[in-house]
Specification:
single chain; about 400 residues; alpha/beta; Rossmann fold; eight-stranded mixed β-sheet; about 45% helix
Length: about 400
Amino acid sequence: MNVLFLTHNFPRRPGDASGSFLLRLASALRGEDVHVRVVAPTAPGFPEQDTMDDIPVQRFRYAPRSLETLAYSGNMAEQVKQSLGAKMAMVGFLGAEFRCAVHSRREFQPDLVHAHWWFPNGVAGAWLSQLAHIPLVTTLHGTDVRMARMIKVSRPAFRHVLRHSAAVTTVSRWLADEATRIVSSPTEFNVAPMPVSTSVFQPDGRTRAADRLLFVGRLNKQKGLELLLRAMAAMETRVSLDVVGDGEEAERLRQLAATLEIEDRVTWHGGLVHERLVDMYRSATALVVPSMDEGLGLVAVEAQLCETPVVAFDSGGLRDVIQNERTGLLVSPINFTALASALDALLARPDRGATLGQAGRMQALGAFAPESVARRYADLYRNVLAAHRP
């Protein structure tokens, strides 16, 4: 079986975290006799035709270099909403992705198209599906559902993609509920998470730091680092924090740390490749995920696989990842005071949450191993194709 992936987020180089779960899924699907080709936007310095882990990748240009900022940034919807130049680039993006997908379809002859994120890739996928008379599978990852919820004018396009999809998956139960509320009509959503590398993310038996927290994520409002910084300042226990990630709020958050007089306890690492990130997970006292309305929260799964205790707000898809007091801690209400109390309580435990980390790894192995996820998607593809054939 041949499957064409459409995405705006895919690794640009070995070790790149951007869309790494899609590369992992594509690679694992080979074990199910499913062969994947990827259509994704290009990035400066990268060829239009490429391979990643033996997965062929066709990359497309969509605007002058100075305007090719929509992909790989994590804030595509915000850019399009706020900038005329970004709106023009998005028109170019949709056209270029569709042309590249048509070209790949002629060369690759896919049995079906799998669009990741309904916008923009599901829109281009629906066009290709109608043109080539092949079924479309669309996966909702989180940011795209937030876009449909917050930007009302996008909802007709959202419903259009869902109507033209033979199957729609969401990476968490919470996302399925959110999408159902938006469309306001009976729609079947298959809950199927993305995979995490169980071979890369694993414990190594090292002794963890006693008082060093870890944050991994984009530096924007939704990811909630501001709440974590304020919680650190309010904690009874003096802790330090490693921040892994980049984003548009980086400078403001650095200034906030200074204002809170904790800047000497915060280390800003920027983005890290997986090999370095694994070391951070293995040595941290706990990973803190202070995000709100997270689609799933794969960083929490990565930490669990390393037996790192995870503390997160009781919000969004993180409820699919963490069972409170069994495989991690879910904090409610969503404010820095509650988070500070939860972190103080975790550090006061004799084992500093080690048993939570161990139980978290066992759960993550069963739910997020690449082989398990690939089997689920391969079965979905086969069911879609069986229903599509005359």
